[in-house]
Amino acid sequence: MHVVVVGQGYVGLPLAVRAAEVGHQVVGYEVDRRRVGRLVGGESHVEDIPNARLRPLLASGAYRPSADSTAMAGFDLAVITVPTPLRDGAPDLSHIEAAGEGLAAHLRPGATVVLESTTYPGTTEELLAPLLEKGSGLLAGSDFHLGYSPERIDPGNPAWRLENTPKIVSGIDGESLRAVDNFYRELVEHTVPVSSCKEAELTKLLENVFRHVNIALVNELAVLAHDLRIDIWEVIDAAATKPFGFMRFSPGPGVGGHCLPIDPSFLSWRVERALGRSFRFVELANDVNSHMPDYVVRRLMEAFNGRRMAVRGSRVLLLGLAYKANTSDVRESPSARVAELLLDLGAEVRGADPHVVNDICTDPRLIRVEATAEEISGSDAVVLLMDHADFDYEAILEHAPYVLDCRSRLSGANVDVL
């Protein structure tokens, strides 16, 4: 088939590459022309897609990245994988709307459109379907197929990839479900059909709310356990030995990415708008997790006070700017908030991350450095925010005068653990 994947980020690029590998002719449509230029040159910006996997598909013509909307013409199946950010606490679906309007201009009878972007229940049928119908003059279900299949990409996870992660599929009617299911069955080992798009949309949000709430639980416990002089990490290790009824979650300096800081609020917003009720679990989790960077800075201030030092004028080295280990993904990373707070307190803040090669989503006052022995020893404090495998932990222990370890990776006389 002629397949169009709208959006070539952490979700869209792996999907487009996989579709090309199984034999489809794929256009990866992306509005960011710089990103398209890099892809055309065979340079992947997603760790899960190495250049060696991308370049043969470019050479054969099976995959063609483009910023030209006319490249979408004649598609048999299109997948929308665009961002869905929050604006002032409400879902911003402008990227879905733009993608829908662009695809509608090229929609033909018998074609299929699938939405993968995370959103609130009802988006596929109540927002996307009318846009496609208006722009094409066709009727969803009668003239073209429409469905929803939530993305389950976990960047940097070597065990669970697109191919072996079960894929939820849905459609607005039986024929749409069959069309969507047939496509994804070529790409993944196992599909999981559900009865409607709303069930599929809510499934994605449930997965993220579950993680968000449980991470908030251990984050708040970490704060309380520290004040009670209890080692929360030992407690979690002990609890994790139970073979049933417990799932391990670990505290940290906050949450990042799209799934946890943003996605649960989609459901909270929808419940408030549709039912006039509050989703208290999500609101409480938002409050706990969003304040963890403040807690990290508070702990660092306490450590400085104990050493008869002030934060103002001190040099602080932040290790790990990405929100996820061994990736370059800085979306909503708590490191940005930690850096901002310390900079506002007058500290000289330096940041090291071997995976983040640019200053996207970081404060311009943050000085980018490498985590050398000289840089570590020259700092008054080192804060381990993300425990990338690339860091030399022996060097950190040897050279750092003080370490606040937010990931329980280190132990020593010069280390405090979150």
Gross morphology: globular
Distance between the termini: 52 Å
Mean of residue pLDDT values: 94
Helix content: 40-55%
Largest sheet: 8 strands, mixed
Quick one: how many beta strands? Answer: 16
> Structural class, from secondary structure content?
alpha/beta
Radius of gyration: 23 Å
- Number of helical elements: 14
Query: How would you spell out the order of helices and strands?
Result: EHEHHEEEEHEHEEHEHHHHHEHEEHEHEE
Biggest sheet, spatial arrangement of strands? 3-2-1-4-7-8-9-10
Uncertain runs: none
Beta content comes to 5-15%
Main attributes?
globular; alpha/beta; eight-stranded mixed beta sheet; 14 helices; 16 strands; 418 residues
What does this 3D model show about the protein?
The chain is α/β, with parallel strands linked by helices. The chain contains 14 helices and 16 strands. The chain has an 8-stranded mixed beta sheet with strand order 3-2-1-4-7-8-9-10, sandwiched between helices. A 6-stranded parallel beta sheet has the order 13-12-11-14-15-16, covered by helices on one side. The chain has a two-stranded antiparallel ribbon with strand order 5-6. Helix 7 crosses helix 9. The chain is globular, with a radius of gyration of 23 Å. The N and C termini lie far apart (52 Å).
Topology:
Layout: E1 2-6, H1 12-21, E2 25-29, H2 33-40, H3 51-60, E3 63-66, E4 77-80, E5 86-87, E6 90-91, H4 94-104, E7 112-115, H5 123-136, E8 145-148, E9 167-171, H6 174-187, E10 191-193, H7 197-227, H8 232-239, H9 263-275, H10 280-290, H11 292-306, E11 315-319, H12 334-344, E12 348-352, E13 367-368, H13 373-377, E14 381-384, H14 393-399, E15 403-405, E16 415-417
Parallel strand pairs: 1-2, 1-4, 2-3, 4-7, 7-8, 9-10, 11-12, 11-14, 12-13, 14-15, 15-16
Antiparallel strand pairs: 5-6, 8-9
Helix pairs in contact: 4-5, 7-9, 7-10, 11-12
